[in-house]
Design brief:
This protein is an alpha+beta fold and 239 residues long. It has 5 helices and 7 strands. It has helices at residues 2-39, 45-71, 84-97, 121-138, 196-206, and strands at residues 80-83, 105-108, 116-119, 148-155, 159-166, 211-216, 221-228. The strands form 2 sheets. It has a 5-stranded mixed sheet with strand order 2-4-5-7-6. The protein has a two-stranded antiparallel sheet with strand order 1-3. Helix 1 runs antiparallel to helix 2 (45-71). The protein is elongated, with a radius of gyration of 21 Å. The two termini are 39 Å apart.
Length: 239
């Protein structure tokens, strides 16, 4: 129970940290409007529209963060076996439908066998979608014509391995040791959506009893998730 309570507190801390920036920006815009109203009887409509747009964007950002956290495991009442191929297809649809990802190609490898994973499908969906969106964001500063992200999976008798790989220049060595820390973010002020790498690591380790690591070079980054298999292939029969 203490471990469960500790994880809940850590999750709430993450939400509080991610909400801090948009709340600060909303407060600044409110102060800005107040100052302009006091200096001028009629506030310029252009400035008014710019401020209200920024406030709307930050409120939407807070909504996305909260929805992402609340969505974890919410659609399922208990852990169950789910198809990895079906999960990949769902992730592909969600990623490619997002307007910001229209210029990025997602190459996905599905396995011939319908391998199943034990746990909450929605949690693994959020983790993988977050990794894909992070890779897409990494391409923002790239001028290259070809922008490709690879989602791959393979399984043996004991584990399933899922990889998310990009060619967007890699994670700088100076921050490589911090990417899974609770309050760390590479996003600039006003950005940053989804569950974050800290929560992703927490979910993989606690919900799936697996691990998440990454390799990075000057060419790109590869995140590697390893999850123990708990489907029928792991059962031992006594003859």
């Amino acid at each position: 129970m203490n471990e469960k309570r500790s994880q809940t507190i850590e999750t709430l801390k993450v939400i509080a940290h991610q909400w801090r920036q948009p709340l600060n920006l909303i407060s600044m815009e409110a102060i800005n409007l107040n100052v302009q109203a006091n200096l001028n009887e009629q506030v310029d409509s252009k400035h008014l529209l710019e401020s209200t747009k920024r406030i709307e964007e930050q409120v939407q950002r807070m909504s996305v963060i909260l929805k992402s956290i609340l969505h974890l495991g919410s659609s399922e009442s208990y852990k169950r076996l789910f198809s990895l191929n079906k999960l990949f297809n769902s992730i592909y649809d969600d990623f490619t439908k997002a307007s910001k990802n229209k210029t990025i190609e997602l190459q996905m490898s599905s396995m011939e066998d319908d391998i199943q994973i034990y746990g909450f499908a929605s949690d693994l969906h959020e983790v993988l979608l977050n990794l894909l969106n992070n890779a897409a964001d990494a391409y923002k500063e790239q001028s290259r014509d070809e922008k490709t992200i690879f989602l791959e999976s393979s399984c043996d008798d004991k584990n399933c391995t899922i990889k998310v790989r990009d060619n967007a220049g890699g994670i700088p060595e100076s921050i490589a040791d911090m990417v899974f820390e609770q309050n760390f973010s590479t996003k600039i002020t006003g950005e940053g959506f989804g569950i974050g790498l800290y929560i992703a690591k927490l979910l993989i380790e606690t919900e799936f009893e697996g691990s998440i690591n990454f390799n990075t070079t000057s060419q790109g980054t590869e995140f590697i998730i390893t999850i123990p298999r708990k489907d029928i292939c792991t059962l031992k029969f006594i003859h």
